[in-house]
């Protein structure tokens, strides 16, 4: 468990800048920050059991308003085939709900009868931008992202907005490498979305959206 906690702390350190921005964008009166929500969820025995039982690779925090009528942070822990959503009340810090899903990994070699990846849309640029909307059909989709920096202090953050709902933080990148890229899987679909990109000191960024259905 100590190794997992160290891994978690390392992940938290990487996303601290993003989480701080997200916290500042919330409604007045929030007493629990995203990082607090992570700490609270780690202390819960159910979450600890989940982390012990699976190869946890990623943690994200979303602003999730309306879970059982309460305003919450949703701390999402996930590996390649398991997902755990922990709902933390933003005012009290209480965990008010935990949901787990398994078997989330798409089949890597699909047959004609199975689902496949479909290209939806690609966005490119080098500065701040709010994109046009796009439609997701499946329950899982992904964003292949890449950036090229022209400075030791690049800025690149991407937020995905479901149409008519609150912001969900999806991608954050920062560092001194000349290029960087990755793939972000999103386990929520069946709707219209758009991106807001904050970028500085870059010579390019690219987002490729693919839907799984």
Describe the model:
The protein has helices spanning 2-24, 34-43, 45-53, and strands at residues 58-67, 70-78, 82-89, 95-102, 117-125, 129-130, 134-136, 140-149, 155-162, 168-173, 179-186, 191-200, 202-212. The chain has 213 residues and is an alpha+beta fold. The protein folds into two domains: 2-102, Roll (Nuclear Transport Factor 2, Chain: A), CATH 3.10.450.40; 117-212, Jelly Rolls (Sandwich). Strands 6, 7, 9, 10 and 12 form a five-stranded antiparallel beta sheet that branches. Strands 1-2-3-4 form a four-stranded antiparallel beta sheet, covered by helices on one side. The protein has a four-stranded antiparallel beta sheet with strand order 5-13-8-11, with no helix packed on it. A hairpin with a 5-residue loop joins β3 (82-89) and β4. It is globular and about 45 Å long. Residues 1-28 have low confidence and may be disordered.
SSE layout:
Layout: H1 2-24, H2 34-43, H3 45-53, E1 58-67, E2 70-78, E3 82-89, E4 95-102, E5 117-125, E6 129-130, E7 134-136, E8 140-149, E9 155-162, E10 168-173, E11 179-186, E12 191-200, E13 202-212
Antiparallel strand pairs: 1-2, 2-3, 3-4, 5-13, 6-12, 7-12, 8-11, 8-13, 9-10, 9-12
Helix pairs in contact: 1-2
């Amino acid at each position: 468990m100590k190794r997992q906690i160290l891994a978690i702390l390392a992940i938290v350190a990487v996303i601290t800048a993003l989480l701080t921005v997200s916290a500042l964008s919330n409604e007045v009166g929030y007493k629990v920050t995203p990082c607090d929500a992570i700490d609270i969820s780690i202390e819960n025995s159910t979450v600890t059991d989940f982390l012990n039982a699976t190869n946890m690779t990623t943690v994200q925090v979303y602003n999730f308003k309306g879970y059982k009528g309460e305003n919450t942070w949703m701390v999402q822990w996930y590996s390649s085939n398991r997902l755990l959503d922990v709902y933390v009340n933003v005012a009290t810090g209480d965990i008010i709900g935990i949901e787990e899903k398994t078997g989330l990994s798409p089949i890597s070699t699909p047959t004609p009868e199975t689902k496949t990846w479909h290209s939806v849309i690609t966005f490119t640029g080098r500065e701040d931008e709010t994109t046009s909307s796009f439609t997701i059909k499946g329950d899982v989709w992904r964003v292949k992202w890449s950036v090229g920096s022209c400075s030791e202090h690049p800025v690149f953050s991407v937020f995905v907005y479901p149409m008519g709902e609150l912001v969900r933080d999806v991608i954050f990148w920062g560092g001194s490498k000349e290029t960087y890229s990755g793939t972000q899987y999103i386990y929520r679909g069946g709707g219209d979305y758009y991106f807001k990109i904050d970028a500085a000191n870059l010579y390019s960024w690219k987002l490729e959206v693919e839907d799984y259905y």
